[in-house]
Design brief:
mainly alpha; globular; disordered C terminus
Length: about 375
């Protein structure tokens, strides 16, 4: 019995057409210009960088203030006062902030789980040593030479910190370009010292702020880790930083009192005692900018602020920068450019390229 005509028609309609379609022709018109970057994206990059520059300028001013205070109270006493004032201001700020309990709860949970180590909470030890170095050497070196030594160590150590992945985000390997930037930073601090009077003594003094700059990069990295663990609430990182710094200053005062008598403070202007306020601004700006633009970019922004701030403060304090200091600043900016990542590259840009996908269609599949 013959099949109905409707069944035959249905069979023909459901037949799949296997004829390949011709490839799409590329457009012949002019290429479409890329869309403008949203204003919000530009602000997300510019504002944190401006905050880092401002924090660097505050750090240059803090070195001058603590140096003047150390001149009539003693270096260790000046550093201890600066850290104590910073801790007191930070503690008082708790009355006006919200979200502190969840932040500290998250921080404790990360410490118990082992994803955050106790050493990450000791960034203030590096900050305290930097403040102590300010009081010991800033007045003798002058703002420009002191800052050049400090930021040279910060640049050089910043390359190592990113290479080891000590800060938030993925590690960034130390390329030859970045190592060259670190070497140029060392030359930048050596140049102003060579033409200074009492060369050997000045070079020896410059070693202290250089090491303090290295400690500053480590402090920025571990404070960023604490900020990340606390759910990106800056308060725990800032509080722990100043608490560790005060503990270091108390120990330094105890050692000094055991070895010799503490110097008797001499009267001085009120602004000599404001270094702790500037320290709050420096640490807070570092914590807020590291979370947004990374350790390296935040460090370079602070370096720029320190260089510009120190060169501006020199003439105001009767210490106009000499030619070698200006040349060292130019070399330092060049070192920062070499150490900075290329424009538009991510933190994983320096990683080796991924291996081909063995499961994709083509000759790689199945090893054929």
């Amino acid at each position: 019995m013959p099949l109905p005509h409707t069944s035959r028609s249905h069979t023909q309609d459901t037949t799949t057409d296997t004829t390949p379609e011709p490839p799409a022709r590329p457009p012949t018109g002019p290429p479409t210009p890329p869309a403008a970057e949203p204003v919000g994206t530009v602000r997300a990059r510019v504002l944190p960088l401006a905050g880092a520059v401002t924090g660097g300028a505050a750090l240059a001013l803090e070195s001058v203030v603590n140096g003047r205070l150390g001149g009539h109270t003693g270096s260790v006493s000046a550093a201890a006062w600066s850290n104590t004032l910073s801790l007191a201001v930070t503690a008082l700020a708790a009355a006006f902030l919200t979200g502190l309990r969840p932040a500290f709860s998250a921080l404790r949970a990360r410490l118990r789980s082992g994803t955050l180590r106790l050493r990450h909470c000791l960034g203030g030890v590096a900050g305290g040593s930097m403040v102590l170095t300010q009081a010991l050497t800033a007045a003798a070196l002058g703002p420009a030479s002191y800052t050049l030594a400090l930021v040279s160590g910060q640049t050089l150590c910043g390359v190592l910190v990113d290479h080891l992945g000590l800060g938030p985000g993925a590690p960034r390997r130390a390329t030859r370009r970045r190592l060259l930037g670190g070497l140029l930073a060392v030359c930048a601090v050596a140049l102003p010292m060579l033409g200074a009077p009492g060369e050997g003594h000045t070079v020896a003094l410059a070693a202290l702020p250089f090491l303090a700059g290295c400690a500053l990069s480590w402090q920025m990295a571990v404070n960023g880790k604490v900020d990340e663990a606390a759910g990106r609430h800056p308060y725990p990182a800032v509080l722990l930083s100043f608490a560790a710094g005060c503990a270091l200053m108390v120990a330094a005062l105890a050692v000094l009192a055991a070895l010799s008598r503490l110097p008797r403070p001499q009267p001085g202007p009120l602004w000599h005692y404001t270094g702790g306020l500037l320290g709050c601004a420096v640490v807070l700006s570092a914590v807020l900018t590291v979370r947004r633009i990374g350790v390296l970019a935040a460090g370079l922004g602070m370096i720029t602020g320190q260089v510009l701030g120190s060169l501006a403060l020199g003439p105001l304090l009767g210490q106009p920068p000499a030619g070698p200091a200006l040349a060292g600043a130019v070399l330092l900016i060049g070192a920062a450019v070499l150490a900075a990542p290329a424009t538009g590259r991510s933190r994983t840009a320096d990683a080796p390229p991924p291996r081909p996908d063995r499961t994709a269609d083509g000759p790689e599949r199945g090893g054929n």
